[in-house]
What we know:
- It is a single chain.
- This protein is mainly α.
- It folds into two domains: 3-81; 83-114, no CATH class.
- It has helices at residues 3-34, 44-79, 94-99, 107-112.
- α1 runs antiparallel to α2 (44-79).
- The two termini are 35 Å apart.
Amino acid sequence: MTDEAARLTERRDETLGLVAALSRRLDGIIESSAYTSNDDEHDPEGVTVAFERAQVAGLLEQARAELLALDAAAERLAAGTYGTCARCGGPIAPARLEALPATTTCIRCADRRR
Length: 114
């Protein structure tokens, strides 16, 4: 297994663990709120629970998107295009790939997007 494949596999495993943990946390929030009043206006904890639920749901969505990006990166690796910028066709710096294994752009093209 190449260094790139190992890095992608490791990051994917970490992200799968994060998805599982966030899913359990969200399920716990939903379950605990099922036994409480739905009167957020008069329940000082209601707003906090709603915020926490939204925050965890957002983090879970981001983690699932990261999984999709990592799977796409693994496909690029298999196709021989991993590490090539999707925008300019130039190489993506190894340090950038190490930090962001699923990235599709070199730092120069990423800066142009801002």
